[in-house]
Specification:
238 residues, alpha/beta, TIM Barrel, 8-stranded mixed sheet, two-stranded antiparallel ribbon, 10 helices, 34% helix, globular
C-alpha cells in the first residue's frame, strides 16, 4: 500500500490520495505518474523493509518493468541486506543507504565497495535538523555536516538530505544552510534535497542553491506540480 508520509510519524501514515490514481497500489501509482508526468525515475521507501521485514523484490521488479529507474530505500543496514537486491537490474536500481538504517561508516564503506560508488546514494536522515542515527552506529559526533563528510570519505558520490519531520508538511525543506555548506566545500558530490517541498518555486530555489535533484512527493500527489510546472522549470513547452 502506498501511503502519505507526514512528519516521520510512520504509525500515523494513511493510504495516499493522489490525483494520478485512486487506489493505493504502488505499482499502479508508479505507472500512472510515469504516464502522466513523463518522469523516468522514482524514489521508493519500503517502510516495512526499513522496519526489518524482507524487501519486496516482486514489487520492485513490477515498478522497474514500467520503464522506470528506482532509488530504493529498503532498510539497507549492512552488506547482507544489500545482497538481497542482487536480483534487480543494477543499471536501473540505485540502493539508498539510510543513516537511520546503516550500522556505521565501516559498513557503509563496504556497501559502497560492493555496490559501486557511483550507484550508492547515502540518505542523510534528519529529525528537525538532527541526524537520525541507527542504534549502535559509530559516526563522528552528532552533526549532520560531519556525518555527510564522513559518508563521502566512505566513497559516497551522492547524498540525499532528507528531514523526515518536514516530509508531507509543505513547510519548506529547512536544510538550505546545510546544502550551501556541502555544495561549497564538496562541489563534486551530487546532492539531492527533499522533505517539505511546497511547489515548483521551491524546486527552482533548491536547484539555484546547488541541488542536483529534488525529491518531491505531496506536491505531485495533490497536483501542485504537474506537467505544466515541470515544463516551466525546464523552459521546455509542456
Amino acid at each position: 500500500m502506498a501511503v502519505h508520509a507526514v512528519g516521520g510519524r510512520r504509525d500515523q501514515y494513511r493510504p495516499v490520495r493522489s490525483v494520478w490514481q485512486a487506489s493505493g497500489s504502488p505499482a499502479g501509482l508508479a505507472e500512472a505518474i510515469r504516464a502522466g508526468l513523463g518522469v523516468d525515475c522514482l524514489y521508493l521507501a519500503d517502510l516495512d523493509a526499513i522496519a526489518g521485514s524482507r524487501p519486496r523484490l516482486d514489487l520492485y521488479k513490477r515498478i522497474l518493468a514500467a520503464d522506470l529507474d528506482l532509488w530504493l530505500d529498503a532498510g539497507l543496514g549492512d552488506r547482507r541486506r544489500l545482497e538481497r537486491l542482487a536480483g534487480l537490474d543494477p543499471a536501473r536500481t540505485r540502493p539508498v543507504i539510510g543513516l537511520e538504517s546503516v550500522l556505521g561508516p565501516d559498513e557503509l564503506a563496504a556497501m559502497v565497495d560492493d555496490g559501486g560508488p557511483g550507484r550508492i546514494v547515502f540518505s542523510l536522515d534528519l529529525d528537525a535538523g538532527k541526524p537520525r542515527i541507527a542504534a549502535g552506529a559509530n559516526w563522528p559526533g552528532n552533526e549532520a555536516y560531519d556525518i555527510a563528510v564522513r559518508a563521502m570519505e566512505c566513497g559516497v558520490e551522492e547524498v540525499l538530505i532528507l528531514d523526515l519531520t518536514r516530509v508531507g508538511t509543505s513547510c519548506g525543506v529547512g536544510t538550505e544552510d546545510l546544502l550551501r555548506r556541502l555544495r561549497t566545500n564538496h562541489p563534486r558530490v551530487a546532492i539531492t534535497v527533499g522533505g517539505g517541498i511546497r511547489g515548483i518555486d521551491d524546486v527552482a530555489r533548491m536547484r539555484d542553491l546547488g541541488a542536483s535533484a529534488v525529491l518531491v512527493g505531496s506536491a505531485i500527489h495533490d497536483g501542485r506540480i504537474g506537467r505544466r510546472e515541470l515544463a516551466q522549470l525546464s523552459g521546455v513547452p509542456g
